[in-house]
Model the fold of this input.
Amino acid sequence: MLSLHRLPGVPTAKQPLFPSTSTFTHPPRRPTCLFPQSKTLPKPPKFHKSPTALLQWNRKPQLSGETPRVVVVTSGKGGVGKTTTTANIGLSLARLDFSVVAIDADVGLRNLDLLLGLENRVNYTALEVLNGDCRLDQALVRDKRWSNFELLCISKPRSKLPLGFGGKALIWLVDALKSRTEGCPDFILIDCPAGIDAGFITAITPANEAILITTPDITALRDADRVTGLLECDGIRDIKMIVNRVRTDMIKGEDMMSVLDVQEMLGLPLLGAIPEDSEVIRSTNRGYPLVLNKPPTLAGLAFEQAAWRLVEQDTMQAVMVEEEPKRGFFSFFGG
Ligand code: ADP
Ligand code: MG
Done:
């Protein structure tokens, strides 16, 4: 069994670190890890996948829920992968033929445009739209590769938000996106700033669902737990979690919490688990999102699968892998 007791500051995986804000009941503890374990470990019980949980690449996922789905990508802690997730899930959704608008609500430190390689094409921002200096379609930057993906930046880099800019302004922008002549987008993704101050409140205001990003470390988990509470207070009940920067070698060495440990602590449904992958950093620096890479990378595939689940409002479970994977890493997700 993976022992968390050996990690400094981590009491036990059976008791959540922080009071849980959801009604999640903890499943019985078992030796669990998303990633391959050594052959010497006892065989886990057989895991039966539900048909809906199997990824069916030969069909388009069925969009569940009313459009536009306004999804905020948030975390509390900075640097855990919100912007990376917004870019990669956004482009995955566009590749699945859904229309997507990604809003960079990280005002002072915007960088979604950089990750997407669109920085030279941002001439106008949402602030200019709100001031009446330009039209909304002038501030929307269409991706050259996927024309059904558009980026909207709230402000210029290093600029401060004017007093009075808040959640209502973002609601106005979302309403304006809904009533465009081109039609309402299927997804509006909002890249949230770190922290829980005014920028965070503004970013979550128009959202009706959230993707909470966390890494498997206790500082990110504490922030994620706090943010979950705040989202629920704001009436956002549909919160799914992505565990990012997961390292198989560290989980095996019992130096990192497994994805299931994280899920048990936060009590949130799991949308995806993204491995630590140097390709993410390479693609960030090239301004070329990972999901567009050919051949696909492990992290890129994990983002694509998370996008698929988002469309269908599906979730996954972290399961123990039976011995060495024979059918590939991604065949071990269940419903
Ligand atoms: P945030 O928006 O939460 O501040 P970013 O998306 O900007 O975080 O990511 C912070 C850094 O972490 C970036 O340099 C990014 O390339 C890196 N990163 C994110 N996810 C991964 C991953 N799965 N593997 C490796 N590096 C990652
Ligand atoms: Mg960011």
Q: What stands out?
A: The chain has one domain: 69-312. The pocket of adenosine-5'-diphosphate (ligand 1) is lined by residues 75, 78-84, 194, 244-245, 274, 276-277, 280-281, 284, 299 (CB under 6 Å).
